[in-house]
């Protein structure tokens, strides 16, 4: 699946004044590739990720399009997407798979180990 975003403009408010956080941002994440979102503090990295995944967007006005393989999923994108925030607490010595298994054990503790493993492998794929 390819993720495309076009002309994203995100505004919020600061001291009851409108503030543009992202202005006309476009890009894509292609399948099988690795992407890094980099920038200085306050550049809008977290806002971009939250906008793309429709998380933590209360109080924001979002204009533009976000599509998965050419389809706009709207709020439903949160059901198929996730990311690890820069301040997330995790053990730096773990591999990505080990980190996912650790969180699967926490979040899916009522499910079988087989189910947890299948979910981890699905995310990795």
Q: Please indicate the percent range of residues in DSSP E strands (runs of 2 or more).
A: 25-35%
The biggest beta sheet is recorded as: 3 strands, antiparallel
**Oligomerization status of the protein chains:** single chain
Task: Going across the biggest sheet, name each strand in turn.
Answer: 2-1-3
Radius of gyration: 17 Å
* Beta strand count: 3
Helical content band: 25-40%
Helical stretch count?
Answer: 3
Rounded to the nearest angstrom, the distance between the terminal CA atoms is 11 Å
Note the overall shape: globular
Which spans have pLDDT < 50 for at least 5 consecutive residues?
A: none
Structural class comes to: alpha+beta
Instruction: Please provide the ordered H/E string of secondary-structure elements.
Output: EEHEHH
**pLDDT averaged over residues:** 86
At a glance:
With 125 residues, the chain is α+β, with helices and mostly antiparallel strands.
Task: Describe the protein in words.
- 26% of the residues lie in helices and 26% in strands.
- The longest helix has 12 residues.
- The chain is of the alpha+beta class and 125 residues long.
- It contains three helices and three strands; from the N terminus they run E-E-H-E-H-H.
- The protein has a three-stranded antiparallel sheet, with helices on one face.
- The model has no long low-confidence stretch (mean pLDDT 86).
- Strand 1 and strand 2 form a beta hairpin.
């Amino acid at each position: 699946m390819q993720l495309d975003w076009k002309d994203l403009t995100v505004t919020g408010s600061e001291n009851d004044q409108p503030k543009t956080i992202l202005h006309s941002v476009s890009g894509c994440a292609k399948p099988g590739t690795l992407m890094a979102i980099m920038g200085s503090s306050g550049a809008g990295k977290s806002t971009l990720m939250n906008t793309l995944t429709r998380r933590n967007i209360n109080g924001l006005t979002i204009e533009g399009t976000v599509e998965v393989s050419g389809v706009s999923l709207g709020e439903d994108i949160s059901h198929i997407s996730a990311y690890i925030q820069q301040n997330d607490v995790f053990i730096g010595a773990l591999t990505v798979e080990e980190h996912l298994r650790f969180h699967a054990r926490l979040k899916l503790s009522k499910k079988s180990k087989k189910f947890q493993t299948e979910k981890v492998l699905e995310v990795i794929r």
